[in-house]
Amino acid sequence: MKVLVVGNGGREHALAWKIGMSPRVSQVFVAPGNAGTGVDATNVPIAADDIPGLVNFARQESIDLTVIGPEVSLVAGLVDALEAAGLRAFGPSAAAAELEGSKVFCKNLLKAADIPTADYQTFRTGDDAARFIKDRYPEENCEVPVVVKADGLAAGKGVIVCSTREEALDAIDRITRQREFGEAGNELIIEDRLIGQEASILAITDGNAIVMLPAAQDHKPAYDGDKGPNTGGMGAYCPTPIVDEKMIEMIQENIIVPTVHAMKRNRRPFKGVLYAGLMITSTGPKVLEYNVRFGDPECQPLLMRLKSDIMDILEAVADGRLIDIDPPEWDERPSICVVMASEGYPGDYVKGREISGLNDAAKLKDVKVFHAGTKLTQGSVQTNGGRVLGVTALGNSISNAKLQAYTAVKQIRWPGAWCRKDISDKAL
């Protein structure tokens, strides 16, 4: 069978790599792909948001299943367009994808379904939001533990964690007046800041049955010790000891199942990956946000550990028969993904810098270098994004996996390359 993976990041490289291992798959296409997917699959020069182009390609090539990676494509309705053309797809409809596409919709659904989350207020104008902050915190130098969020999609960067009144007002200004996140800032949320450790819980669902995946922990802030601005994710590891089997069961019962039921009641039945970003607080897990696709970089360490044929899962979801398949099998060893980024990320950065050492890193045992922001130019692999590579490794322990991943990182070079040095230290 033929499979089309949509996207050009590290998540899509990991998906194409794992799908290509299935004995049932004869060819994997990636649209538009990157330098890494060009090695493990066949790249197609169609943008991830070119819905007519993707549908036409899938029809012409008789694609048996399209797997959509990025949230932009899902929110824009790629699954709907494929299914309307009689083609199978893995991912939620545009209506269901609003769970990620609108933080206001998500928070309102959580509240209506009595799913644990932070208290919040929504605002349509910066003036109203600023007035709320000034009324609630009248003293200029007082502590203001809030999180200000742009409503729409902002590539993981539209969430600003604040500690002071000045920071909160500045965040509101950046979102609503400076329009730092464009139309994503047409509405915003101000919510109470939760205290604890973050964890990522991914579940696969066809709208009825649910398969829980091992817990992972992402590292959103740019710098060591969780300092600096938020990014799309600077690394992840799986599993995370802060979420044990008992907590997984509690999260499934109190968060995932009620969310699936609430979406069905809203006539937006959900199928695909339901990714809950959680804060593990002293009173239990609470939902920070939902994503409607595999996380990036969480997807990379997850798929490194997956021993089952991923096509069994993807097809079962697309066909609505997830209840019929066996639970997936996982490698007992933990895995770690370290993101190597371009100088300047998450701000402005330079593209087109030549990357060396990829072959040396690939020779290391239990290491896979997933490409994210790369391109192939006249035979050389060059940087083409902020997050460039996801260096992923398995190990007999978390510390061993970390050592193996950073050993591979040291093999890879380009001008301005950098990474966090503390991925997985929370587990140690």
Please describe what this structure looks like.
Helix content is 31%, strand content 27%. By secondary structure, the chain is an alpha+beta fold. It has 4 domains: 2-93, Rossmann fold, CATH 3.40.50.20; 125-186, Dna Ligase, domain 1; 197-324, D-amino Acid Aminotransferase, Chain A, domain 1, CATH 3.30.470.20; 335-427, Glycinamide Ribonucleotide Synthetase, Chain A, domain 4. The protein is globular, with a radius of gyration of 21 Å. Residues 107-319 form the ATP-grasp domain.
Task: Give a short synopsis of this structure.
With 428 residues, the chain is an alpha+beta fold. The protein is 31% helix and 27% strand.
Give the secondary structure arrangement, pairings included.
Blueprint: E1 2-7, H1 10-19, E2 27-32, H2 37-40, E3 42-43, H3 51-60, E4 65-68, H4 71-75, H5 78-84, E5 89-90, H6 94-101, H7 103-112, E6 120-123, H8 126-136, E7 143-150, E8 159-164, H9 165-176, E9 188-192, E10 197-205, E11 210-212, E12 217-218, E13 221-223, E14 227-230, E15 235-238, H10 245-265, E16 272-281, E17 284-291, H11 299-305, H12 310-319, E18 335-341, H13 358-362, E19 367-371, E20 374-377, E21 380-383, E22 387-394, H14 398-409
Parallel strand pairs: 1-2, 1-4, 2-3, 4-5
Antiparallel strand pairs: 6-9, 7-8, 7-9, 10-11, 10-16, 12-15, 13-14, 15-18, 16-17, 18-22, 19-22, 20-21
